[in-house]
UniProtKB/TrEMBL annotation:
Residues 13-244 form the ABC transporter domain. One of its GO terms (molecular function) is ATP binding. Pfam families: ABC_tran. This is NitT/TauT family transport system ATP-binding protein. SMART domains: AAA. It comes from Compostimonas suwonensis. The lineage of its organism: Bacteria, Bacillati, Actinomycetota, Actinomycetes, Micrococcales. The keyword ATP-binding applies.
Length: 279
């Protein structure tokens, strides 16, 4: 097991020997096993791993939406036993409300938190402008592309200036070009306010481009097998992922997946025909 520790500064959160087991109809399923993790305030961390390895389970426990079976999650040194209010969450689906305008969707979180919506209207316009949606405030979700909808979801998650932004594969459904632009937008938003960010992604280049650290998880039950520090200066551009340092990190991650048996040629596949010469 690799214990993933904060790189600098005070820890925002700690997972201490956390395991999570779900009770299924047939038998218990352990999603994560004996995971320890320390996250510094203002860090950008990505977690990569095979499907079903417990990445989303970790995110849920960090938000206080579910509790570990064993071990504990602590935020600012206090054990978390209920949903933590200082988070913003973005899922793979944008979950926008179709009957509300773009600005109303961004402000909906404030309304749900029983805040004064009018006090946040300027902040909403500012966030939308930062992600290229100035002038779309009064449009409806059905008038937006997939990438635009996800930008609205990110603005909604940031409207209350959360301590931490939790992202669960938010760009997985987007085409590659839109995804690259979303990575640039997210980097700019993070640099602007430096919230703590934990990103779940299957995209190795995305994780390397955005992160201070990339944590690699094993197959289920998930545990950390590596904690890779990314020292490439910011702001980064799209060419950063082809630098020598990034290529080495990407190769390391792929080697982990090959060793775990989740990346490589599948057995049972017919070998390609061998060309022969007539003698």
């Amino acid at each position: 097991m690799t214990t993933a520790r904060a790189s600098s500064g005070d820890a925002w959160a700690e997972l201490r020997s956390v395991s999570k087991t779900y009770q299924s109809r047939n038998q218990p399923v352990t999603a994560v096993h004996d995971v320890s993790l320390s996250i510094a305030r203002g860090e950008f961390i990505s977690i990569v791993g095979p499907s079903g390895c417990g990445k989303s389970t970790l995110l849920s426990m960090l938000a206080g939406l579910s509790q570990p079976t064993t071990g504990e999650v602590r935020i600012h040194g206090q054990a978390i036993t209920k949903p933590y209010p200082g988070v913003g969450i973005v899922f793979q689906r944008d979950l926008l409300l179709e009957w509300l305008t773009v600005k109303q969707n961004v402000l909906f979180q404030i309304d749900m938190r029983r805040g004064r919506v009018k006090d946040y209207e300027g902040r909403a316009r500012e966030l939308l402008a930062q992600v290229g949606l100035q002038g779309f405030e009064n449009r409806y979700p059905s008038e937006l592309s997939g990438g635009m909808r996800q930008r609205v979801a990110i603005c909604r998650a940031l409207i209350h200036s959360p301590e931490v932004l939790l992202l669960d594969e938010p760009f997985g459904a987007l085409d590659s070009l839109t995804r690259e632009q979303m990575n640039l937008d997210l980097q700019d938003l993070w640099l602007d306010g430096k919230p703590t960010v934990v990103l779940i992604t299957h995209d190795i280049n995305e994780a390397l481009f955005l992160s201070d650290r990339v944590l690699v998880m094993s197959s289920r039950p998930g545990t950390f097998v590596d904690d890779i520090r990314i020292d490439v200066p910011r702001p980064r551009d799209v060419s950063s992922v082809v630098s020598e340092e990034m290529r080495v990190h990407a190769a390391t991650i792929r080697t982990h997946f090959e060793n775990l048996g989740v990346l490589g040629h599948r057995t049972g596949r017919a070998a390609p025909p061998t060309e022969t010469k007539e003698g």
